Amino acid sequence: MRETTIKTLRRLGFTEYEARAYISLVGFGMATAREIHETSGVPQGRIYSVLRSLSDKNYIEIQNGNPSYFYADNPGAILNKLKTEMNNSINESIEYLSNLHLNSKPPSPIWAISSEWGIKNRIKTLIQGADREIIILVYDPSLLGWILPELKKIKRRVNIEIYAKNKDDFAGTNLRVTEYPEKMYSMMEKVTSMEKNVYGVHEAKMNLLIDESTGFFIGKTQGTVTGVIAQSPQLVYTIRAFMKMLGDE
Asked: What local confidence, expressed as pLDDT, does residue 191 receive?
């Protein structure tokens, strides 16, 4: 608990030594610099400067004498004040960032995400933001856990089409799944080859097409999961048209 409190105090602006000295002093109520040094782990050569810094910040009081005594008065009130100041600063920062608009070059329609957390978060955002249609081609059923919770939330308002090698992988999900025919599999292998050459994705795992405007191609590159976003309606429309054509045959 002591280390957790030290981390909390550091988030509130204390230095490591200030946090350790303050905790020891609160435990004593009133103590000399030597007592605080011996229990806090703050080096003897630093303890006076650390205590003076705490005093300058009005966190502790000093009773001068020989020896001098230090005491911490009402630490709860001090920490609540610091918490309020931090919350106010965070709220001001949120407001500033929300209203920040800088002129920049138009973003690239294609970019990559190389962290698993980032890919999962982007999948969630894309699925939640879909208006009309989501088409998903699943190569690797082990990734189903990344999409099923979000698909279940929006399946009543968005048309969802899933193409997979084995429908049994989706048993119990109440989602419409089509086992892709051999022609589609052959065509998508060519798409995978294109992804490898253009995006650097070496092993396709799953493709998502959102509202005929955005494609998200997930694969593995040198053992690392990579997601490539393509906000290119023309490209997405072409891939979608091929998938629909072959899926209907």
From this structure: 57
CA Rg value for the chain? 29
For domain 2-98, the CATH class is mainly alpha
Q: What is the mean pLDDT of residues 205-210?
A: 90
Q: Where are the domains of the chain?
A: 2-98, 110-248
Using the structure block, give the residue that is written with the tokens 């002093």.
Answer: 25
Query: Rounded to whole angstroms, what are the CA distances from 61 to 27, 53, 141, 215?
Result: 15, 11, 64, 62
Structure tokens at 117: 């957390």
Answer for the pair 176, 136: CB distance below 8 angstroms, yes or no: no
Stretch (H or E) spanning 114: none
Residue 219 burial by CB count (10 A; 0-12/13-18/19+): exposed, middle or buried? buried
Cβ pair 54, 42 in contact under 8 A: no
pLDDT tens by residue, 135-145? 888 888 888 88
Domain 110-248 in this protein, CATH class: alpha beta
Q: pLDDT tens digit string along 37-88?
A: 999 999 999 999 999 999 998 899 998 888 889 988 788 888 888 889 888 8
CA distance 20 to 40: 5
Decide: helix, strand or coil at residue 222: coil
Please tell me the predicted confidence (pLDDT) of residue 17.
Answer: 94
Tell how far CA 210 is from the center of its chain: 22
pLDDT of residue 193: 55
